[in-house]
């Protein structure tokens, strides 16, 4: 099959097209014919070798990146009964173990595969899985009730713009902190009660105006000095959800409790996510989609300002 591979970790120029063997399908696996794959900031981190040995598994080359994808079922293992060949599906995987989705085909345990909701374009589904499930897990961790207040920091990014929508679906009041006029406009369009540009506005003052008694919670998807200062607006009895991998972490612990966490990619989580998608206007904002032969340009674009997600068109 066609794939984009690394023969060693390093810069953008280490990405190269190659024909490699199809992945082997185990009894509990689904083989996906990939149509679209997500391109995310952690792909660049992984490309540079920062995840080497991070999951207790030795990296093997040629190495295929890509944590998110959508396409159609090409084959299933003998224990898999809930998917049929040809069905549209999306999945979240961990490339270090079995190879990722920068390839014509990817293999994933059926537990981590879900049908694409009927109304969702495959392109959006391909860039969705890890960000949406991380957002959903963060909101679960915070356990907010309707009308409680939430600051989504990094609301124009992948996790952030999905978190805004999931929170509003639950009736939570959302203050979105984004970067740039486009990030603010996206957060407003997706339902944020208020949205501000964290680079132009005093976020702490705006947060206290939004919730004079203090915010109930925050979901932080972009770290740094501004994020750290903004967390002073959270009540001391409040909660802060911080996905693992968001850097830098706070130097000075805020007054509220910070919980670091990973996204749940189980069938239970994707079933819940799909139910929300079907019952709402949830969307994945794909800023740019690159053909697979322009994967280097896609990785360079990770350093540019954009809102939402980037994607590769694979098949």
UniProtKB/TrEMBL annotation:
It comes from the Bacteria. Residues 10-312 form the Enoyl reductase (ER) domain. The keyword NADP applies. SMART domains: PKS_ER. InterPro entries: ADH-like_C, ADH-like_N, ER, GroES-like_sf, NAD(P)-bd_dom_sf, Zinc-ADH_QOR/CCCR. Keywords: NADP. The keyword NADP applies. GO terms for molecular function: oxidoreductase activity. This is Alcohol dehydrogenase.
């Amino acid at each position: 099959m066609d794939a984009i591979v690394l023969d060693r970790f390093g810069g953008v120029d280490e990405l190269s097209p190659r024909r490699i063997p199809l992945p082997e399908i185990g009894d509990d696996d689904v083989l996906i014919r990939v149509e679209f794959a997500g391109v995310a900031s952690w792909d660049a981190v992984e490309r540079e070798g920062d995840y080497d040995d991070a999951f207790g598994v030795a990296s093997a080359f040629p190495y295929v990146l890509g944590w998110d994808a959508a396409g159609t079922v090409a084959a299933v293992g003998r224990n898999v009964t809930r998917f049929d060949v040809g069905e549209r599906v999306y999945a979240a995987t961990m490339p270090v173990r079995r190879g990722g989705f920068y390839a014509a085909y990817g293999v994933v345990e059926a537990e981590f595969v879900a049908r694409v909701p009927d109304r969702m374009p495959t392109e959006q589904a391909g860039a969705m899985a890890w960000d949406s499930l991380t957002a959903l897990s963060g909101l679960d961790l915070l356990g907010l009730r309707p009308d409680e207040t939430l600051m989504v920091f990094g609301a124009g990014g992948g996790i952030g713009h999905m978190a805004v929508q999931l929170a509003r679906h639950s009736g939570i009041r959302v203050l979105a902190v984004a970067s740039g006029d486009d990030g603010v406009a996206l957060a407003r369009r997706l339902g944020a009660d208020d949205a501000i540009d964290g680079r132009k506005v005093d976020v702490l003052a705006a947060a206290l105006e939004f919730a004079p008694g203090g915010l109930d919670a925050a979901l932080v998807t972009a770290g740094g000095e501004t994020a750290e200062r903004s967390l002073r607006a959270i009540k001391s009895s409040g909660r802060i959800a911080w996905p693992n991998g968001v850097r830098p972490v706070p130097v000075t612990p805020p007054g509220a409790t910070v919980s670091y966490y990973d996204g749940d990619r189980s069938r239970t989580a994707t079933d819940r996510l799909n139910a929300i998608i079907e019952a709402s206007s949830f969307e994945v904002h794909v800023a740019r989609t690159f053909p697979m032969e322009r994967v280097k340009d896609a990785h360079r674009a990770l350093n540019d300002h954009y809102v939402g997600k980037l994607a590769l068109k694979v098949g």
